[in-house]
Structure formats: C-alpha cells, structure tokens
Amino acid sequence: MREGYKKEETMERIDWKGMIVPKVKELLESFSYRPTLRQIFYRLVAALLIPNTEVTYKSLSRATVLAREEYLIDPLAFQDRVRTSQGGDYGFDSPEELIEAALADLRDSPSQYTRKMWTTQQTMPIIWLEKDALFTPITTIADRYRVKVYAARGYSSFTAVYEAAQDIDGAMPTRVLQLTDFDPSGEDMVRDLEDRLTRYGAEDFDLVKIALTSDQVSTLGLPPMPAKKSDPRYQRFAASYGDQVVELDALPPDDLDRIVSTAIKDLIDPGAWNAEVEKARQEREEAQRRIEELLDKLE
What we know:
Elements (H helix, E strand, L loop, with lengths): L1 H11 L3 H13 L8 H10 L7 H16 L25 H14 L15 E6 L5 H10 L3 E4 L6 H10 L1 E11 L4 H16 L3 E9 L2 H7 L4 E2 L7 H8 L2 E2 L7 H13 L4 H29 L1
Parallel strand pairs: 1-2, 1-3, 3-4
Antiparallel strand pairs: 5-6
Helix pairs in contact: 2-4, 6-11, 7-8
C-alpha cells in the first residue's frame, strides 16, 4: 500500500493540463496521420517529460480525454482501431442521379488506370506487422509502393498465416518484411512466422525483420521498459539482449517511414519501375480517348 501511494503522489507532480497537454498538441502536429495515444506516450517518455510506466500511460489517457472534452485538443486526434463501426444508409434520390453519377465515373475512370508495378521486379515484398494499432501509418507508406500489409495483434492467427502462405505461391520470389516489438515475444515471432508460412505451403520466400532491432533501439535512443519475466521466452532474450524491451510504437514517425521505405526501395529496379510508369501513362491516354468517343455517342 505504501509503495502504491508513492506512485500516485509522483503522478500528482506532473502538470498534465499546463505542461503535458500543450506538448501533446504540439506532437500531434508532427504526424501526417492520426496517431495512437501509445505513440504520443512514447514521444513524451523520450522527451523525459513522463516516466515509462503503465500507471503514467493511464494518467495520460485520462488527461487527454479531459482535454478533448474541453476541446483543448481535437476530439478525434487519436486513432482507435479497436473500436470501429460499419454500415449505414445509402442510395440515390432518383434514377437520373444514378445515370449522372455513372457517366461522371466513366468520364473520370481513365485517371484510375495503372499497371501492376511489381511483376517486372525481381522480388515482391509484403509487410507483416505485429501491431494492428500501427496499421494506418504502415499502410500509408506501403501504399506508395503498392505493397500488401498483414496486421496482427501479437502472434498471427492460423487463418492470417495460412491465407498469406497461399498468396506466396512461388510465382515470383517474395520477401516478408516483418515489424515487431523488441521483446522476447517479438524476437520469437520471426521464427514462428517463417516456420508456419513454410508449413502452410509458402514457396520461394525469405523473411527479414526490419524493425524493431537491437541496433535501432541503441542508435535511436528509444525509451526502454523492463521485460516481462513471466514471458516463457524471457531467459533466451535476456541472455542475448538484457532485460530491457522497447515497443514498436516508440519509433518516431519519420524513422518508421525511413525504415519501411528503405526496405521496400532496396527491392526496386528503378529502370523497370519507370518503364511501367511510362507505359501506364500512354495506355491511360488511349483509354481516355476511347471513353470520350463512347461518351460522345451516348450523349
């Protein structure tokens, strides 16, 4: 009881509204997407403004809820991928509205024309992400290069790994770019995923963990926390790396972008890529011409 009381006393000394909330607002402006609260938490820890404890994280959560209720920060500033919604009403007000919308879509459709970019490359990348919470920033990066992203919450399910194994069918070499926490389970996930993909039929692939690595933790000075000794993989991890772990969420957005982009671009042959871009441009112009001829007949 005495120790718990001291923790609460320490939290009271943090000026959440006067110092932390303005810093949160400043940090939010550095993201090009809605970050998770956990990402902001690690930025504050790295800035030595708050300690890296679960008690502090919960206090930050309460402080930012109050700040959003008072509109000190945007109420929708943070992404929450756990709680989602789906569905709703849809339709048209008249048949004419449908026809006008269809013609407008047809008129604009050539702008959507493209070609498959990876079929002329030597190796096809896919990304495997341990943290579903980072799905948005990772897919934002991957979409630039048309790379598929698989997201999990910890160890991946049978269905996810089996479906991926069927996609990795040997039609062309594939590289799995994996991102996990730097902790006992995160390190073991590399072995687990590679073993299971092979067992479920994946062919002609290799797997590379691109984050979070021991070197990245040291080089970037990411905020550590004690490893969970209850993890059955703790002893092996501690023997190699010590008893400090770092979550993937602690990576600053610019570093995350750089690491993922570099891993993808290392697989791109610029000559072949640019040839496909030029061919798509020419074929897009042809599609535009033919659609305009069709629309002239319709109108």
